């Protein structure tokens, strides 16, 4: 680890010790910009041999070079531009001079298009999370590239790349529509030109996508920038929104900038390698030692993912402008932010504000894997008197996930009727929603690519599976589901997370089974698929389940009841988490049921003409649409 750190310092110092070179410009980021943006200020990162030693001029109507910033590394210049509202699309010539030498580099200003973008995701949506490398392969020609640091692809090895891509994902848009999905979230698609890394004695590929090496390129193994644009357009045409996974905290150690750092402070540097503690408590603890807080925030996630210093204004500008560029260039609708709690929170507020100023409907929700409501609220808009106030609109609701899993593990056991057992976990978590400004902006889940699969967590029990999916799709928040949950994919992260990231059967030509089709699924898998489809479709078509208020009643004897209601209707969800059938007298719920005389089972369509006492089978959640 110390050797790796020393290598990074040499990368920084080498340009300062090198002999003079002929000035040149080899990169400009952002790669382009647009006229008509609300914020007309842009900071260009200009890179090339001795690029920081030149004097720059720009002669283009409506574009003004305000300042040229130089840094420790003479190969970088940061140009502050203002782009007037009157500027027209075209090629801006950036001219650098040093003595008798002149370098000219074109930089494009584009017209904004009117295609759908930044629509946001809301409680009306149902998000489907997929790992593109493991979902579907539509183009075998982009599986391997000899010029990449990881040139291989081998489906027989769970730790290597498998060849899934955007073309394959596009071919399954109809499948997602049929399931009732309204938004697609992929783990990162950005270029990850990383070599294999030794993790626990096993060489592993960066197929998950979380080690960026160039934020302005979609990885060519997924099809590249044009394939992503095409996918977003196809998804929008089909009525699906697209969520992009962002990483601000770190990059891959082979990121192009790290090969020649602009300045030492581009990264969080330590005298010797220092890993984050992965502890979130010191971040919010008013009694915490500063060193504990610093290690949590500034320690590296792992040795091969260097930690970016977002307190450096050049780093902050680079990340914020890239985020805006991605929305405008690809037309995405929402951001999921990786490792949100490890980021510099003032930076995150600045980044969120910049995005929302340009795209007011955009939704942003981060990953802060905490285990209590107070710490979770810290990372979103809240009503708590924290010294720091987050402006993040949403967050991923890991606390509710933990509560639902705890309740389901106890379902059918004596603990289900305990004082704090069974559905009490869910009730008590939702009872603390008072801390959030808007709990409906939280993204709910039962598992994801970093967790044990949901079905395995609940003992491969289909009854518990249906209860969990019922809660997910009828309670407050924006539900998300991990790919394959609908066809009962299962496994624990044992021995590694590769076990919960297996290929979707049927996503590759020649697969023995095709679970994308009813004919390729077993009877049990079709039962699960049809259950999700029926409930997701009902949710999509009935505003009461995404716009209605939530009223829950204290669970009694393992029976948990809540209502979603508004002017358009009332839906009752009644859950029996015991292992015996139960009668549920409804007089206690008169506050919400008064005036209703009948109902209809949302899933079976069966009418219910007597609401006085409901008969609930063991381990069952019943969804009833009430009527007068």
TrEMBL record:
InterPro entries: Cyc-maltodext_N, Cyclo-malto-dextrinase_C, GH, GH13_cat_dom, Glyco_hydro_b, Ig-like_fold, Ig_E-set. Residues 129-539 form the Glycosyl hydrolase family 13 catalytic domain. Transmembrane segments: none annotated. Gene3D superfamilies: Glycosidases, Golgi alpha-mannosidase II, Immunoglobulins. Keywords: Glycosidase, Hydrolase, Signal. One of its GO terms (biological process) is carbohydrate metabolic process. Residues 1-20 form the signal peptide. Pfam families: Alpha-amylase, Cyc-maltodext_C, Cyc-maltodext_N. GO terms for molecular function: hydrolase activity, acting on glycosyl bonds. SMART domains: Aamy. PANTHER family: ALPHA-AMYLASE FAMILY MEMBER, MALTODEXTRIN GLUCOSIDASE. This is Alpha-amylase.
């Amino acid at each position: 680890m110390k050797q790796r750190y020393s290598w990074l310092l040499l990368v920084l110092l080498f340009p300062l010790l090198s002999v003079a070179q002929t000035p040149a410009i080899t990169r400009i980021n952002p790669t382009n910009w647009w006229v008509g943006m609300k914020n007309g200020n842009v900071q260009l990162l200009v890179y090339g041999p001795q690029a920081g030693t030149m004097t720059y001029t720009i002669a283009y109507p409506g574009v003004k070079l305000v300042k040229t910033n130089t840094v420790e590394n003479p190969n970088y210049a940061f140009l502050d531009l203002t782009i007037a509202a009157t500027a027209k699309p075209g090629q801006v010539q950036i001219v650098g001079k040093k003595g008798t030498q002149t370098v000219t580099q074109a930089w494009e200003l584009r017209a904004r298009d009117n295609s759908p973008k930044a629509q946001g995701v809301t409680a009306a949506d149902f998000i489907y999370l997929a790992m593109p490398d493991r979902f579907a392969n539509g183009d075998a020609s982009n599986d391997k590239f000899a010029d990449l640091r990881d040139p291989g692809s081998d489906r027989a090895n769970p730790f290597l790349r498998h060849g899934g891509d955007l073309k394959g994902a596009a071919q399954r848009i109809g499948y997602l529509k049929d399931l009732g999905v309204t938004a697609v979230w992929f783990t990162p698609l950005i270029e990850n030109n990383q070599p294999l890394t030794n993790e626990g004695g096993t060489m592993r590929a960066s197929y998950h996508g979380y080690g960026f090496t160039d934020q302005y390129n979609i990885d060519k193994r997924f099809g590249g920038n044009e394939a992503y644009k095409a996918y977003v357009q196809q998804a929008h045409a089909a009525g699906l929104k697209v969520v992009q996974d962002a990483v601000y905290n770190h990059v891959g150690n082979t990121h192009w900038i790290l090969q020649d750092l602009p300045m030492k402070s581009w990264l969080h540097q330590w005298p010797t390698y220092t890993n984050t503690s992965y502890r979130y408590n010191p971040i919010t603890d008013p009694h915490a030692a500063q060193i504990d807080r610093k290690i949590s925030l500034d320690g590296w996630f792992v040795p091969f993912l260097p930690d970016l210093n977002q307190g450096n204004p050049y780093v902050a500008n680079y990340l914020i402008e890239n985020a805006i560029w991605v929305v405008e260039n690809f037309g995405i609708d929402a951001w999921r932010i990786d490792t949100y709690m490890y980021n510099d929170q003032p930076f995150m507020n600045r980044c969120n504000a910049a995005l929302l100023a340009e795209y007011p409907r955009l939704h942003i929700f981060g990953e802060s894997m905490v285990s209590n409501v107070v710490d979770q609220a810290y990372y979103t808009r809240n009503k708590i008197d924290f010294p720091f106030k987050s402006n993040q609109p949403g967050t991923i609701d890991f606390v509710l996930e933990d509560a639902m899993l705890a309740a389901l593990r106890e379902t059918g056991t004596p603990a289900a009727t305990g004082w704090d057992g069974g559905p009490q976990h869910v009730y008590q978590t939702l009872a603390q929603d008072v801390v959030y400004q808007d709990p409906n902006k939280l993204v709910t889940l039962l598992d994801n690519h970093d967790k044990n699969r949901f079905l395995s967590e609940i003992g491969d029990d289909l009854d518990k599976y249906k209860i969990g999916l019922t809660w997910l799709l009828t309670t407050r928040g924006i539900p998300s589901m991990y790919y394959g949950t609908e066809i009962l994919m299962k496994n624990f992260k044992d021995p590694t997370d590769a076990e919960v990231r297996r290929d979707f059967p049927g996503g590759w030509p020649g697969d023995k089974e095709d679970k994308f089709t009813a004919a390729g699924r077993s009877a049990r898998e079709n039962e699960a698929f049809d259950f999700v489809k029926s409930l997701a479709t009902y949710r999509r078509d009935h505003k009461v389940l995404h716009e209605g208020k939530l009223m829950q009643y204290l669970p009694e004897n393992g029976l948990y009841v809540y209502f979603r209601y508004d002017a358009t209707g009332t839906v009752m969800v009644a859950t029996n988490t015991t292992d015996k059938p139960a009668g549920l007298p409804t007089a206690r719920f008169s506050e919400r049921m008064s005036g209703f005389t009948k109902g209809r089972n949302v899933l079976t369509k069966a009418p219910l003409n007597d609401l006085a006492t409901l008969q609930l089978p063991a381990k069952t959640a019943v969804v009833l649409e009430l009527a007068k």
